[in-house]
Automatic annotation (TrEMBL):
<keyword id="KW-1133">Transmembrane helix</keyword>
<dbReference type="InterPro" id="IPR035906">
    <property type="entry name" value="MetI-like_sf"/>
</dbReference>
<dbReference type="GO" id="GO:0005886">
    <property type="term" value="C:plasma membrane"/>
</dbReference>
<feature type="transmembrane region" description="Helical">
    <location>
        <begin position="66"/>
        <end position="89"/>
    </location>
</feature>
<feature type="transmembrane region" description="Helical">
    <location>
        <begin position="479"/>
        <end position="499"/>
    </location>
</feature>
<feature type="transmembrane region" description="Helical">
    <location>
        <begin position="399"/>
        <end position="420"/>
    </location>
</feature>
<feature type="transmembrane region" description="Helical">
    <location>
        <begin position="364"/>
        <end position="387"/>
    </location>
</feature>
<feature type="transmembrane region" description="Helical">
    <location>
        <begin position="101"/>
        <end position="126"/>
    </location>
</feature>
<keyword id="KW-0472">Membrane</keyword>
<feature type="domain" description="ABC transmembrane type-1">
    <location>
        <begin position="66"/>
        <end position="271"/>
    </location>
</feature>
<keyword id="KW-0812">Transmembrane</keyword>
<keyword id="KW-0997">Cell inner membrane</keyword>
<comment type="similarity">
    <text>Belongs to the binding-protein-dependent transport system permease family.</text>
</comment>
<feature type="transmembrane region" description="Helical">
    <location>
        <begin position="146"/>
        <end position="173"/>
    </location>
</feature>
<keyword id="KW-1003">Cell membrane</keyword>
<dbReference type="Pfam" id="PF00528">
    <property type="entry name" value="BPD_transp_1"/>
</dbReference>
<dbReference type="InterPro" id="IPR000515">
    <property type="entry name" value="MetI-like"/>
</dbReference>
Length: 620
């Protein structure tokens, strides 16, 4: 990376404009809101006050929510690792019949999550769910609330958050040197001894990183406890949402959000410290690719196959039922009985033929598309400046842009609400709270760290000789950026845009705080459909919404991974094709983040060549 002096940086008018806009944005939307939140909590009248802390100590609901959040996080750290490691081993390490089919089943959480996933499980297993009603038709004494509370939240979030294991742990497993496994086998080590003494220790850094991210996911969980937790199991995030609705308890909501943010910062600091002191055997570049290992014990082989396919059914069944239910009348779902007469296209006709019903879907698509385009276009210039000009100012700005990775989404949303509910000179004396703009601003903020990280990596992979050649030929900095550099990083930028669009479509965490009453996003419409038994029509419409979301997200994942993987395989199959060159180096493969946004930071441990080291930083 080329070091540049302050004078060289400030000589470029484009760089000056980018820095001025960036400083304004960071000060207005990242620093000021969080400072306002702290001041309003601990200095409400200009003097230090611990009134919010006293409210917390005296509130049994608030204290219970803290306990529930940490208990949920600790439980998920165990259950997600057990299930996640198992599904990675049966799809990528052991020789299991139908492993590709199993992978497709386990990967269903890549195409739906958050409020959609929680609502789907509630419609299937909840009090008014299809499975619950079908079982009660045979056994009337079954408790209709069996799938609620702590148990239901743990089950749903365990299945939802194993996506990190499939993406990151699977990538690390593929980089283990197969020669070490062969050497151990030649020395008489059994399959299980190799697994415990060689494979799992090599994956330990990534397992630890994913465990921390899983803990953070459980700590800040909102949608799963909100939809499935019931009255007896509410965590910090739902309590923040409840307390923030009243001006008298907003300081308590702010304090809970601050506690959540502090816990996040401490855990991420621990993760970074352990990563820096670790040895990453799993990322060594080796000549011998990993080969799948047979399970030689016949009993163990049968048991592993049975458990693997049982998990496949658990993962895939909700997706299949959601597609099926989208073609059923609401009464058939509510009674738990399916007949041929119950199948209909009326649900799809209602969604596409009724503007009021389609509106939440369109609103979410517009918000997601605008935020994805804005953040990628803005970060293209910022990432280039950061990559080319390294000095204390750009380093500080880069760290500040990672604030959304450090703080939970609900804290960011609450801070924006409390800051822009009055005229602010930094935005021309305007009030943003209650307008359509604030949610768009929040979406842009949330996606900045992930976008910046990968775009900066893309620019770093472009050979400097190309820029030097353009300069020798007389091209100016702006012309070089537009005609030489941007085309090389455009595939990565397009992939990031698609992934950001995917993750924002069904957002609930930020939308519930910041949405405009006349433009309700899809996440809130889905949440409303889960409340009460009289919402049968809304339930059917939600199934259609979910199918549409899964189609869009599945198509996006294919564009980002499937098509790229196929082209890479075709390139490898062509003999004599050069492996170097600008085109090969310019597009690092981005990693998607379906659960906490901090997951992208784990790629530092897994793929150090793709993402330069920096600081890391929500889910059902």
């Amino acid at each position: 990376m080329r070091n540049s002096s302050w004078r060289a940086m400030l000589r470029s008018p484009l760089v000056v404009v980018v820095l001025v806009v960036l400083v304004w944005f960071v000060a207005t939307f990242l620093v000021l809101p969080n400072a306002t939140l702290l001041i309003s909590t601990f200095f409400p009248d200009g003097k230090i006050s611990f009134r919010a802390l006293e409210k917390l100590v005296s509130s049994e609901r608030a204290l219970n929510s803290l306990w529930h959040s940490f208990a949920l996080a600790a439980t998920l750290a165990v259950t997600v690792n057990v299930v996640g490691i198992f599904i990675v081993l049966v799809t990528d390490y052991f020789k299991i019949r139908g492993s590709r089919v199993l992978w497709l089943g386990y990967a269903t959480t890549l195409i739906y999550g958050g409020i959609v996933l929680a609502a789907g499980y509630n419609f299937i297993y909840g009090k008014y769910g299809f499975i619950t009603n079908a079982v009660r038709n045979v056994f009337p004494d079954i408790d209709p609330n069996w799938f609620s509370g702590y148990f239901a939240v743990v089950v749903v979030m365990t299945l939802a958050t194993t996506t990190n294991h499939m993406l990151f742990l699977g990538s690390s497993l593929a980089k283990i040197d197969y020669q070490t496994i062969e050497a151990a086998r030649n020395m008489g080590a059994s399959t299980w001894r190799i697994l415990w003494r060689i494979v799992l220790p090599a994956l330990r850094p990534m397992i630890f990183a994913v465990t921390v991210l899983t803990f953070l996911t459980g700590l800040g969980a909102l949608t799963a406890p909100l939809v499935l937790g019931g009255t007896d199991f509410q965590t910090i995030a739902p309590m923040i949402l409840t307390f923030s609705k009243s001006s008298g308890s907003r300081d308590l909501a702010a304090l809970l959000a601050i506690i959540l943010g502090l816990a996040t910062i401490v855990l991420l600091a621990m993760m970074n410290r352990v990563e820096k002191s670790g040895t990453y055997f799993s990322v060594a570049k080796v000549a011998t690719p990993l080969q799948k290992q047979p399970i030689r014990n016949p009993v163990a082989n049968v048991l592993v196959h049975v458990v693997a396919y049982m998990l496949f059914v658990i993962y895939a069944l909700p997706v299949l039922l959601i597609v099926l239910f989208s073609f059923l009348e609401a009464n058939a779902i509510s009674t738990g009985t399916i007949t041929w007469d119950a199948f209909t296209l009326a649900n799809y006709a209602t969604v596409f033929g009724t503007p009021a019903v389609l509106k939440p879907f369109v609103v979410s698509v517009v918000y997601s598309a605008l935020a994805s385009l804005i953040v990628v276009l803005g970060m293209l210039f910022v990432a280039r400046v950061f990559q080319k000009h390294r000095n204390p100012m750009t380093s500080l700005l880069e760290y500040l842009l990672h604030i959304p990775w450090i703080l939970p989404t609900i804290l960011i949303a609450l801070a924006l609400v409390m800051t822009f509910d009055r005229p602010n000179p930094l935005i021309g004396g305007q009030v943003l709270t209650g307008t359509t703009m604030l949610l768009l601003v929040a979406y842009v903020i949330i996606k900045i760290p992930f976008t910046l990280r990968l775009l900066k990596a893309a620019f770093a992979s472009v050979p400097e000789s190309l820029e030097d050649a353009a300069r020798i030929l007389g091209a100016g900095p702006l012309f070089t950026l537009r005609t030489v550099l941007v085309p090389l990083v455009l595939p990565t930028a397009a992939a990031i845009t698609a992934l950001n669009f995917n993750s924002l479509l069904d957002d609930y965490d930020a939308a519930v705080f910041l949405y405009h009453p006349l433009y309700e996003p899809l996440g809130l419409a889905i949440r409303a459909s889960t409340e009460g038994e009289n919402n049968l029509d809304a339930m059917s419409i939600t199934f259609v919404y979910t199918v549409l979301l899964m189609i869009i997200m599945g198509f996006t994942m294919w564009l980002v991974y499937g098509r790229g993987g196929a082209s890479r395989r075709r390139r490898r199959s062509r003999p004599g094709r050069p492996r170097g060159g600008a085109g090969a180096a310019a597009v690092p493969v981005p990693m998607p983040v379906p659960v906490p946004v901090a997951a992208a930071a784990v790629t530092v441990a897994a793929v150090p060549a793709a993402v330069p080291a920096a600081a890391p930083g929500s889910q059902p």
